Amino acid sequence: MGVTELGKLINESRQEIDLAKLNGRIISIDAYNALYQFLASIRQPDGTPLMDSRGRVTSHLNGLLYRTINLLENGIKPVYVFDGKPPQLKQTEIERRRQRKEEEAHAAEAAAKAGNTEEARKHSQRAIFITDEMVNDSKELLTAMGLPWVQAPGEGEAEAAFMAERGKAWAAGSQDYDSLLFGAPRLVRNLTVTGKRKLPNKREYVDVKPELIELDKVLRELGLRDRIQLIDLAVLIGTDYNPDGVPGVGPQRALKLIKEYGSIDRVAKSVGLEKFPMDPIAIREYFMKPDVIEVGELRFNKPDERTIMDLLVRRHDFSEDRVKGAIERLRKSMDRTGGSSTLDAFM
DNA sequence: CGGGGAGA
DNA sequence: TCTCCCCGG
């Protein structure tokens, strides 16, 4: 997902950041990215996610509730940005992912039947898909919590970056680096309070700290002229729109090629255009001009306790005591930062 | 992932 | 008070 390989080239321009430094700041969070993380990590050892009595997955609601409250308690204003219609460019990749998830779901089932819980967990984590119902419940929860959220016309990541570029948000929040390609001046990764992440294939956990990545610093570190060159670099490595990148070209060689030739079209002429199943210039243009909208006034309101209880406790079998405790924390954090106020008040 | 109880 | 670890739905 996203341009994960780009991270291998980024060192000095990646800085750990204290949560306190984010106090009072708005972060436009890629909702899909966040929900995906919750669905991947909030699981039992055998890979079973949290579910209500009707078998509906609830891991995303659990994660969304507690993480959002944690952010608010630290004075951070999260604004979740939901995906709209994916661009045409992404269609083949979407179909490819759907097929792979189907296979992984079968593999998970088989492993579970064979009693291999580790395998089952691994495969079921790769089989995650986010349903409309999950998205709708998440939006309902956020609204009931008194938080604004944004419906992007296209990619949520693009809209979140646009909000950061326009100063609607201080930074974009995501695990992917795509926000930088979409023009976010700042990207915050690992936006968690008690960051613990499971190491792949191991039982160990490592501490993860929030990190701030600034676009201009990245360009300087890599020695690139502008964002267009960064996009060109990413297209060589592989993006959501050309996931394989150019076979045989890794991050290091891609950087060298962009510096040597200056742009992706010149690189393409050199390495051969047939190495690009998708038109690299079309991908670049999409990153430069994605489908985004100006967001209207965003408002933080008092939490609606009734609706939160109805959604989580009555409909999804959360424990009444736990949710009450969460609402209490939510109320306190909202009071401290001003329960009902416009987004502009925090700028 | 994150809460909170157990045990030190 | 702190760390570890189980459990949430």
Largest sheet strand order: 1-9-6-5-2-3-4
Mean pLDDT: 92
CATH superfamily of the largest domain: 5'-nuclease
- Give the total of domains: 2
The CATH architecture term of the largest domain is 3-Layer(aba) Sandwich
Low-confidence stretches: 339-347
Query: Helical residue percent?
Result: 40-55%
* Main β sheet profile: 7 strands, mixed
Sum up the overall morphology in one term: globular
- Strand/helix succession: EEHHEHHHEHEHEEEEHHHHHEHHE
Number of helices: 14
**N-to-C span:** 32 Å
Summarize the structure.
With 347 residues, the chain is of the alpha/beta class.
List the helices and strands and how they pair.
Layout: E1 14-16, E2 26-30, H1 31-41, H2 59-73, E3 77-82, H3 91-113, H4 117-126, H5 132-144, E4 149-151, H6 156-165, E5 171-173, H7 178-181, E6 186-189, E7 196-198, E8 205-207, E9 211-214, H8 215-222, H9 227-237, H10 251-261, H11 264-271, H12 280-288, E10 299-300, H13 305-315, H14 320-337, E11 341-342
Parallel strand pairs: 2-3, 2-5, 3-4, 5-6
Antiparallel strand pairs: 1-9, 6-9, 7-8, 10-11
Helix pairs in contact: 1-2, 2-5, 2-14, 3-4, 5-13, 9-10, 9-12, 13-14
The structure holds a DNA duplex (8 and 9 nucleotides).
